[in-house]
Amino acid sequence: MLRQLPAGVATLEGPELRYSFVNDQMLELVGKEPLGQRVADQPGQLPAYFLEVLPRLYAAGEDYTAQACTCGSKHCYDLSVQPYHDEQGVVAGLLLLAVDVSEQEAARQRAHELALTTRHLDARLRVLTETAPLITYTTDAGGKVIYVSPQWYRFTGQPPTADLTAIWPLLVHPEDRLRVLFESEAGRRTGTGWNFEYRLRRYDGAYRWMLSRSLPETHPPEAPVFWHGALTEVHQERELSEARRRGEAELRFLADSIPELVWTASAEGLVDYYNHYTLEYTGLTKEELGPTGWVGLLQADEQAAAARRWVQSVASGTEFEGEYRMRRHDGVYRWHTIRARQLSDGSGPRWFGTCSDIEEQYRLRQVLQTQYDELSRAHHNLDTFVYAASHDLRQPTNNLRGLFEELRRSVTFADAEQALMLQMVDTALSQLDATLVDLATTVRTQRQLQEPVEVLDLALVLEEILLGLRPEIMQRGARMEVLVSEAPGLRYSRANLRSVVHNLVSNALKFSHPVRPPHIVLRSYLTADDQPVLEVRDNGLGMHIDNPAHPVFQLFARQHTHVDGTGVGLYLVQRIVTSQGGHVTVNSTLSEGTTFTVYWTIPAI
Q1: Do 482 and 504 reside in the same domain of the chain?
Q2: Which of 107, 151, 196, 537 is deepest in the core (most CB within 10 A)?
Q3: How is residue 553 annotated by DSSP?
Q4: Distance between CA 118 and CA 329 in Å, rounded?
């Protein structure tokens, strides 16, 4: 029987504790052929502390049990020692019983480790749930609140001693209370979770929107016993959502109220909304219009080009704009301006577009264009006539001057005012000839306004102009001063620049002061906005200027009539500069001098 036991059995006989019986299971623990050997001489895998206890147990005749003793590196045993007696009742030896509990001990160790891990995870989970910005809770199948995180007490202001099951429904807004109780009870009854929003009273009495989510703890096949959930404050998100819904409703109402075709499209360019006026104008339903409705309403020969432009705009995100003929509900095609822009926000890109009926504006624009073309032709014809007339009239004027010279040489008059009359006729002929020359120059300048623009070296151009005026400069003993270092270059038409500077310098020489030699300064510089400026300053007769809107630039306007002139030069200067996007200012004092400041066109960046 002892040999068949599923445990190691050995008897230790006498005070020397010699092996007298060892079954096969015990041989694995104490080693082979132990019979007759002292246990101290052949301990096998028995622990040392256990061997030290055996002599005392023999002497005292006591029982001893050692649980989960590690024997070797892989096995663990429960060791039991019981004394046995001889016929006289004297202790004759010890009965040693060893039960292999290695698997049980390993399982116990695993269970212990799992318990420690569970405690750590439970502590970690508790820290996470109690520090997260939400309220966590647990209820049972009967609706009793088993657990709630500390955030609930901080949010509601309730004491920890409060009956949670009884108090929390009273903190729900009266309008939401029945719905919340019904939905949570339905979730527990069906063994599912719930997800709903309701208003919960805060510690200050204000109701805040909360999102309640809960799921059951399942252990199939048993029914759920506990529900674990969380409360998250969504008050701001709810208010923003409500505001957004109101805004969308107002915008939709506004879009449906205006007499304009309004539509929106997805990021892919597919139309998903038409306002009410679009349906009225086209006579089609939203389903009939479809995701590409406005393209299908265009004339057949315009649809392909419009669709390609729309696809390119959607792909690049650039604004779409074009003029197309769109079919009305009665089949009439009318011109429309179609515009669409992309809006990108947190919800992704979307397109907003309009189709504006411009039939009347288009026809008016055609009429205006026709009238403009006619006026342009008339203006060109008038310029041609003035140029031809001024050119053709110069020949009769020259003939009159020749006849007058011959008359003065060969004919005498018995008149005391002969000399004065001859001088007056000569002066009139000179003025007529100068006026015809200026008219031709004006027309020629008008035609030169479209001269090509280039980058000019200002110093060289001014030197060429002054070289052409050298006879007048030498005649009047004028001192010229050119200062262009601050802005040495100018992007302008060479012919126009020459005309402007030539007229300003000519006037400065012509209207010089009789008691002092002319001093003329030409200075170029840049304004704070990088606009190039040319300043022409003289010390001549000066002018009388009442206000900034002075008439000095008007055609044939003159202040110093005792000096020969026609009043065309300054008109040409002002016309050239303003036609190119610049302007001219003048500052003058009588008998001291005049300063003309020419602000050229601001260069395009």
Answers
A1: yes
A2: 151
A3: G
A4: 74
